[in-house]
Amino acid sequence: MTRVNVFQQPIGEPVENWQGAQLPSKTVIDGHYCRLEPISVAAHSQELFDALRQAEDERDWTYLLSGPFRDLAEYQTYLARLETLNDPLHYAIVDLSTQQAVGSIALMRIDAQQGVIEIGHVTYSPQLKRTRLATEAISLLLHYTLGELGYRRVEWKCNAHNHPSRAAALRLGFSYEGLFRQAMVARGHNRDTTWYSIIDSDFPALQVAYQQWLAPENLDKQGQQRQKLGELIETQRRAAINP
């Protein structure tokens, strides 16, 4: 039944005792396969620069707003600025098996008062793409923001032409919300932006699916997934609807 006010106008569900969410801090976030560390020139620049240089060409930078970087000095100058910021708040993704930084990611457009935050600046090296670490990094940020800091909504936005990013959002359980036409000019080109989100009520089912997918028993002897993440998410969503 739709709720109405005293004027018989439809209104949303009440959010009782809402005090806003907490701001994320520059703290380490530990996982089973990776660790998220606040970005640091001293700790991460060489490892990240070397990892990102392993790409065959520069196509990974097409839809990002920074890079590619000509040399380590230029990359360090870029990271030095990021290191001072709280929004975006950038993290290095460290592979626990090697203790090497292999990518970076950020929390951004932080609106703690309204409980809205975005995951962005996703920069994965070849060593990180299509690995358990890549998925775990997202799940760690979702748990941190929705599970610990009290956010109600996490957003994912990307260039409408960035089909790998769009596919990743759907695979991770984000819901498509629409196309924002002519949202910005990026690298001298028009950018239409696609919007996705996960809200707090989505997260319990997603968290179970992430845990199941990341579990060692979900890998066979060849290291291949026994069950796909999308299948696990769908199963948990159905279970949430029909307990």
UniProtKB/TrEMBL annotation:
GO terms for molecular function: protein N-terminal-serine acetyltransferase activity; protein-N-terminal-alanine acetyltransferase activity. Residues 47-201 form the N-acetyltransferase domain. Keywords: Transferase. Coiled coil: none annotated. It holds the Pfam family Acetyltransf_3. The keyword Transferase applies. This is Protein N-acetyltransferase, RimJ/RimL family. It comes from Rosenbergiella nectarea.
